From TrEMBL:
Gene Ontology cellular-component terms listed: chloroplast thylakoid membrane; proton-transporting ATP synthase complex
Name of the featured protein: ATP synthase subunit b, chloroplastic
HAMAP family (UniProt xref): ATP_synth_b_bprime
Membrane topology field: Single-pass membrane protein
Protein family: Belongs to the ATPase B chain family.
Protein species of origin: Phelline comosa
CDD domains linked: ATP-synt_Fo_b
GO MF, one example: proton-transporting ATP synthase activity, rotational mechanism
Compartments it resides in: Membrane; Plastid, Chloroplast thylakoid membrane
Extra remark beyond the main annotation: In plastids the F-type ATPase is also known as CF(1)CF(0).
Segments crossing the lipid bilayer: 32-49
Length: 184
């Protein structure tokens, strides 16, 4: 106890300015004051600090919870997107296979229709050639007939008199009449 009273007695004793040394006086160095201030801060600040930490903890937990929910939602969307992708890839493969087979089918149809068209054109060409040959033959026959007829008429006109000429015309009209009666 003597030490404690000595410390109160020596409160008025301060070291001189400019001196260097350790101050062993407890009251002069304020450890009690500091411990009281720290105790008050801890006592009253503990609730505020605890509330701040609890609020921060709740915000962190809420952020983590929201992040987990977003992550789960993103995973679900990713799985849906992957399923859609697989479905689209399967459909694309089917379209590709069907497209190739459709292209091959169309190619064969085009080749077949081209052959048919070529055959029709060949037949049409042959018909035109045959028609032109017949027409040329008919024209040649008509010319030959006309020339023969003109030659015959020239010969008859030079050899025949008008009486013989009238009898030949009458005989020919009779032959034509008889032919007409047979065809009717």
């Amino acid at each position: 106890m003597k030490n404690v009273t000595d410390s109160f007695v020596s409160l008025g004793h301060w070291p001189y300015a400019g001196s260097f040394g350790f101050n062993t006086d407890i009251l002069a160095t304020n450890p009690i004051n500091l411990s009281v201030v720290l105790g008050v801060l801890i006592f009253f600040g503990k609730g505020v600090l605890s509330d701040l930490l609890d609020n921060r903890k709740q915000r962190i937990l809420n952020t983590i919870r929201n992040s987990e929910e977003l992550r789960e939602g993103a995973i679900e969307q990713l799985e849906k997107a992957r399923a859609r992708l697989r479905k689209v890839e399967i459909e694309a493969d089917q379209f590709r296979v069907n497209g190739y087979s459709e292209i091959e089918r169309e190619r064969l149809n085009l080749i077949n229709s081209t052959y048919k068209t070529l055959e029709q054109l060949e037949n049409y060409k042959n018909e035109i050639i045959h028609f032109e040959q017949q027409r040329a033959s008919n024209q040649v026959r008509q010319r030959v007939f006309q020339q023969a007829l003109q030659g015959a008429l020239g010969t008859l006109n030079s050899c025949l008199n008008s009486e013989l000429h009238l009898r030949t015309i009458g005989a020919n009209i009779g032959i034509l009449g008889a032919m007409k009666g047979i065809t009717d």
